Amino acid sequence: MASIKSATIDSEGVEEAGGKASGSQTLLRGLDVIDALIDGSLPLAELSEKLDLTRSTTHRLASALVERRLLSFRPREGYSLGPKLLELGHAASQQMHLPRVARPHLEQLSAATEDTVHLGVLDGRHALYLDKVPGRRRINIGSRLGERHPIASTGLGKALILDKSEPEWTDFYATEGTPFDSTARAVWLERMRGYAQKGYAFDLEENEDQIRCVAAPVRGVDGKIVAALSVSSAAQYMSDARMAELTKTVTDAANAISTDLGWAPKP
Length: 267
What we know:
The radius of gyration is 25 Å and the shape is elongated. Helix 1 packs across helix 3, helix 2 crosses helix 3 (55-67) and helix 7 packs across helix 8. It has nine helices and eight strands. Strand 3 (116-123) and strand 4 (126-133) form a beta hairpin. The longest helix is centred in the last third of the chain and has 21 residues, at 240-260. 43% of the residues lie in helices and 19% in strands.
């Protein structure tokens, strides 16, 4: 994209000596054109109005982008995003391998809390652990990479389904053929409603005796939950007060990973 060429940027552009726009100015204008078409095709007149540029300037920029296949043009529809962006998007997704992107944040979170940090994804009706950074405390968290844990009893698992509906939550509560206490399920559902509103989840010694955790979801570029991370420690280090304090630290780390994956929170 850096090779986009343009003639003089009319009165809207910053010009250098000789009447030629600076390379960075042209590049930024080109990126603005692409951004303006995210929501759909636009004819030249509407595109130039949206960009607050003259039609001639808009046409020059758009034509350069069409040549590089970053935009497409159809006479009756106008300009739209081009096939080259699909190639770039695929390449970016391949390079943004989740554990690799998340690892620095997991390490920072573990160092800041001194506790064990996990990263996991939804795998059917279970949470699949993709990465683990042990804490500094002399505590054995008996989890291993590649293990699958129940959704309902783990903080990480609950964080993975925060966006799902209550009927779906109920379906995750007990694995097929496993009996459950309806009163306990009602309590669990009430907690899930609270977790969904706040954007994080707890494990209150539900999965492993004397182990508690705070978890938060990781979102992809489309805003959907693609993973979750958790901070786990012995109950003696995880009082109710400390768990409440950790919620911001954990959600901040999850959001940082989400941002690296292309997610942008709504203002």
